[in-house]
Each structure stands twice: as structure tokens, then as C-alpha cells.
Amino acid sequence: MEDVFVPLIAITSLFIGMPWIILHYITKWKQAPKITQEDEGLLDELYSLARRLEDRLNTVERIVAADNPDWQPRIKSEQPDDYLTRRN
């Protein structure tokens, strides 16, 4: 009887347990919230606001640098602006 019990549990878990786990997580994945058009529009608006604020900061830095030759502007990041290339 013990010789049959262990393979029976292994086969049962393989054919019932594994598909149940896989289907459970597929269902959870499909129920996950997705980004809406409204959210995407808000992100685009926030990105354009950030770009305008950065332009204003650069303008202020140029003005301060012209008035004070010893002043050092902030170090700009060397990361490429690839957001627009991903969006278009």
C-alpha cells in the first residue's frame, strides 16, 4: 500500500495542483489594474510640467552665473532623454 501512496500523491499534485496554481496566478494577473487613458494623459502632463520647470531652473542658473562669476551651477545628469523617443 505504501508503494502506491507516494506515486499517487506525486501524480495528483502534478495533474491537479500545478494547473490550479498556474490558473490561479493567471486570474490574479488579469485582474490587476491597468493604466487608463486618463492616467496616461496625467503622466504626459506631469512630464511636460517637469520639462518646463527644468527650463526655468536653467534660466535662473544662467542669470545667477552671469551675475556671480564664482558661482557653480548644478551638475547636470548625463542620462539621455529617451522618454520622448519611447513615446513617439
TrEMBL record:
User: Which residue ranges run through the membrane?
Assistant: 6-26
- What is the name of the protein in this document? Envelope stress response membrane protein PspB
Q: Which UniProt keywords apply?
A: Membrane, Transmembrane, Transmembrane helix
Q: Do you know which NCBIfam families this protein is assigned to?
A: phageshock_pspB
